[in-house]
Design goal:
Layout: E1 2-4, E2 15-17, E3 20-22, H1 35-47, H2 53-56, E4 79-82, E5 88-91, H3 93-99, H4 101-112, E6 117-118, E7 123-126, H5 131-141, H6 152-164, H7 168-178, H8 191-201, H9 204-213, H10 221-224, H11 232-260, H12 263-266, H13 276-287, H14 294-307, H15 319-343, E8 345-350, E9 353-358
Parallel strand pairs: 4-7
Antiparallel strand pairs: 1-2, 2-3, 4-5, 6-7, 8-9
Helix pairs in contact: 1-11, 3-4, 5-6, 6-8, 8-9, 11-13, 11-15
């Protein structure tokens, strides 16, 4: 018996075929029409890279990646979960079925199927996930210490498995543990990799967070020189995201310059008569969001006061006034980012595959 499980209107859930859940494939075709496409194609010709993120995101599991745990061989177990690399997890069915409606139906199908694999005492359910992924996933389900994978690729596979099995609470728990990592899981150095993997696995929240982290660099040969292996479709989506952020920021910051700058700043005298340097700094953020940084702000102020031959009272702006300005500017930028994150998310449906895409 074959059962198709539909998770929601936008995304198709895992296929259950004789209680084997097959991994979802991900692909997308997108016509190149923007300037970044030509840049990306140049990168592609230079690197001659044909490897996709999906090819490196699922490395074969080894026994060392799955530490032995007595809770995976529970003497009171009433079911065996088998991984695609022949690992066995003897667990209590109750924990699994309560955590996942998908696995609940899968297990029920397994128990009622005449082809179900059984031992003399326990029924067995074959899953498509690796032993490493199942080990981490079960550590968040069973009453035991949670174990987060040590690599970005395996962490994204863990989140993907939790999403595939519709484990919303488990996904929240995994993300909570991820946020405690030091250095942060999503940062400038990992943003592109996390973004590509999130796109491949349809992880919207991680894709949005990673896309925002990429705002710290621009789409130039200099900034993308060490990131040329990123799939072209992902660079295209990020370029559209950056373009949308710049468009939104331009409108919001124009209004901010008119009515939003705190009086502690606007009320101060300046050698140039008006705070032109401040307006220039605010405008620069829309062109390059990476300049939204307190250090960059102080550099603008320093260059302005240094250029004044007669001295400028802007050099004596109080720290209280700067904090008031920075807080007001931060609120504008963060509100803008929130609106962009809500408005730019789309799902591309190519054949029977689903791929989340920013932009």
């Amino acid at each position: 018996m074959k059962v198709w499980l539909v998770k929601n209107r936008r995304a198709l859930g895992p296929r259950v075929d004789n209680v084997v859940i097959a991994p979802q494939s991900s692909c997308i075709a997108l016509n190149c029409v923007s300037p970044i496409d030509r840049l990306c194609l140049s990168f592609h010709r230079l690197t001659m890279s044909t490897q996709t993120v999906s090819e490196v995101s699922s490395p074969p599991s080894s026994s060392s990646e799955v530490p032995e745990n007595p809770l995976f061989d529970d003497p009171d177990a009433d079911i065996i979960l088998r991984s695609c690399d022949h690992r066995e997890f003897r667990v209590l069915k109750l924990y699994i079925t309560k955590a996942s409606p998908v696995l609940q139906e899968t297990i029920q199908s397994a128990l009622s199927s005449p082809t179900a694999i059984t031992t003399p005492s326990l029924p067995s359910v074959q899953l498509s996930d690796s032993g490493a992924t199942l080990s981490s996933l079960l550590s968040f389900i069973l009453p035991m210490p949670s174990v987060l994978p040590s690599t970005i690729e395996h962490t994204m596979l863990l989140l993907s498995a939790a999403q595939k099995y519709q484990m919303e609470f488990i996904m929240s728990s995994i993300r909570a543990v991820i946020t405690l990592q030091d250095p942060p899981f999503i940062r400038e150095q990992t943003a592109l990799q996390v973004y590509s993997l999130a796109q491949t696995h349809g992880l919207r929240q991680e894709a949005l967070h990673a896309a925002r982290a990429t705002l710290s660099f621009s789409f130039t040969f200099e900034d993308l020189g060490d990131k040329l292996a990123t799939p072209l479709v992902d660079l295209h989506g990020l370029w559209k995201y950056h373009h949308r952020v710049q468009t939104y920021l331009a409108d919001d910051l124009t209004a901010f310059k008119t009515t939003g700058v705190p009086s502690e700043i606007t009320g101060r005298p300046c050698s140039y008569g008006t705070l032109t340097w401040l307006g220039e700094y605010i405008d620069s953020i829309a062109k390059s969001p990476a300049l939204f940084d307190i250090t960059e702000f102080h550099m603008f102020l320093l260059r302005h006061t240094s250029a004044s031959h007669h001295g400028c009272e802007c050099a004596s702006i109080s720290s209280k006034a700067i904090r008031a300005f920075w807080m007001a500017l931060t609120n504008v930028v963060h509100d803008c980012m929130t609106r962009v994150s809500i408005n730019v998310y789309e799902i591309y449906d190519i054949g029977n595959s689903k791929r989340a895409s920013i932009g």
